[in-house]
Write a structure and sequence with these properties.
8 helices, seven-stranded mixed β-sheet, alpha+beta, six-stranded antiparallel β-sheet, globular
Amino acid sequence: MFRTKRSGLVRRLWRSRAPVEGDGEADRGTHGSGGCCMGKTTKVAKSNAGSEAELKALTHSILKKIKEKQLEVLLQAVESKGGARSPCLLLPSKVDAKVGQQSYSLPMLLYKVFRWPDLRHSSELKRLSCCESYGKINPELVCCNPHHMSRLCELESPPPPYSRYPMDYLKPPDSPDSGPSSSDTGGTTYSAPVGPSDSLALQESGERAHWCVVAYWEEKTRVGRLYSVQEPSLDIFYDLPQGNGFCLGQLCSDNKSQLVQMVRAKIGYGIQLTREPDGVWVYNRSCYPIFIKSATLDNPDSRTLLVHKVFPGFSIKAFDYDKAGSLQRPNDHEFTQQPRTGFTVQISFVKGWGQCYTRQFISSCPCWLEVIFNTR
């Protein structure tokens, strides 16, 4: 029987759909469902044979109505898991599809099939800035590329007390020779043993050409030079097809620790930092969780800081400019004594830290980032 190219593309796409619980791959939490902050997860039960057949028939019927070139774009995005640059897939936004008793828009159906089977509502999504539909409201044609979207990380309220850092840890030691930050004392950033870190010096130089600088650390040792960021978006990765940005795989590291080497290899597609009007967002495009601590992720009146867990495919606003301004109040003793606290974000790959982990401080994590924002 003669099979068209279109039919072949549709079959390949269906085979590349997002796994659900019971499919094996879903249990690893690579690009499937998940939650944010302290490991809250939402698993999706494997659908019964009837609904699976219905979903397959519906997906096939919709995909067969899409142009071949658009199918190729979708297949490139899905098979590379977002690693390869793929253009927008512009399709009518008002086409509805029904699975059982549930009705979904065309974009929502494609997002559920190819990214997040547990997706319930479009309010759970955030469009990435690389997308043509970014910032547009109710256009007739909307991008349906599943890898131009991310899931929003919702912060827990109230957060578990065991995951918090007392703000007393952020107060500088009484010694007059102490630097502006500390490592294993629980301070917000880890500086070089002698004098202030050059990341602090760079921030205080008043440069306006960059909006942030990034330092990569392996345990207590910084690897490579500071990476200055001028573009609105930056990819930080170990191994990314068509990658363009801060490639950690090209840095020379003398660390022989098996754990460091294992975690380094798991960084994979890494993260994406994006400067947007409301703040700086971090998108986890790797296959493993990342862990973030930022003063602007917590209530400005709080005396403690949380370490937030962000699952693959999720985004979180890691730095808020308005909140950062409130952290500089003249009567705010902790932040006036340690000015970097409000302007630095720490991100650890794969391994978390804090009071609910064996690692108490980020300087014990195998691979981590220090992002210092230029707010001048």
